[in-house]
Amino acid sequence: MVIEDLLALNPASSRRNVMLGLDFDADGTLVGWDLGEMGLGSLPESFCGLQLSQSLNLCGNQLTRLPELFGELRVGGDLNLCSNRLSSLPSGFGAIQVGGSLDLNSNKLARLPEGFNAVHVGGDLNLNSNELLSLPPLFGRVQVGGSLSLSLNKLSTLPESIGDVQVGGSFDLSYNQLSALPTTFGQIQVGASLVLSVNRLSTLPSGFGELQVGGDLLLRMNKLSSWPAELPHLRGSMHK
Q1: What angle do CA 65, 122, 169 make, to 5 degrees?
Q2: Does residue 151 contact residue 132 with C-beta atoms inside 8 Å?
Q3: Which segments within the chain are labelled E, that is strand?
Q4: Fewest C-beta atoms under 10 Å: which of 64, 81, 223, 236?
């Protein structure tokens, strides 16, 4: 049913290639699907009922939107939506559960839905190379087991909830347009590196020295006139 619906919406896509991407277990249950670079422009609503124990690859297509119920997907492995043409995500996207990494890199996202903070990702969350101007008020509550990447966007401010960020990997905010950080920023917990390089920061907020960072703190290519007197105890290095 899902295959027929998908091909009906994308008649130029090859049935053979779509079928070749299917991955079944020994019992004949669909566990993964590789639909990368298939020329897909749309996904049917029936697609949202998939429950895959492994990965779903939709990278390198021409998707401009996702079905409204896309958040009902359950993916045990990675969900790859990179290099499409998505300018927005459906309002219910935050309900999605991904056991591995969620990759939204290299789209055209200008904003995220208000409920995005409910996203649950066991691996990395990659939002690099989009057009994000701001983040939802509660974004800092996203549940990310690996790294959180927001590099190469157009962020000029961050919500106060950013202080709630807890990631096991790195947190990358480089190559944005941040001129200031919220007072809550010092509350974040990062297991690896914190990258703030190539922004417009001229000062750092009070409480910045309370940061808990397991790796390097990178602040290169900002406009800082002075280095804070108190800085967190880091396992790695601090790079101004």
Answers
A1: 105
A2: no
A3: 22-24, 30-34, 51-52, 56-57, 74-75, 79-80, 97-98, 102-103, 120-121, 125-126, 143-144, 148-149, 166-167, 171-172, 189-190, 194-195, 212-213, 217-218, 238-239
A4: 223
Cβ-based neighbour number of residue 223 at 10 Å:
10
Q: What angle do CA 85, 141, 172 make, to 5 degrees?
A: 60
The string of DSSP codes covering 149-204 is: E--SS------GGGGG-EESS-EE--SS------GGGGG-EESS-EE--SS-----
Query: Which amino acid is it at 127?
Result: L
How far apart are alpha carbons 205 and 76 in whole angstroms? 39
Q: Which of 166, 203, 199 is nearest to 183 (CA)?
A: 203
Residues 6+ apart with CB under 8 A from 94: 71, 113, 115, 116, 117, 118, 119
Helices (H), the chain: 2-9, 15-20
State the Cα–Cα distance between residues 197 and 7, nearest whole angstrom.
Answer: 44
- For 82-105, how does the pLDDT look when each residue is reduced to its tens digit (9 = 90+)? 999 999 999 999 999 999 999 999
pLDDT over 70 at 232, yes or no: no
pLDDT at residue 1 greater than cutoff 90: no
Neighbouring CB atoms inside 10 A of 42's CB total 17
The residue with tokens 């690896």 is 192
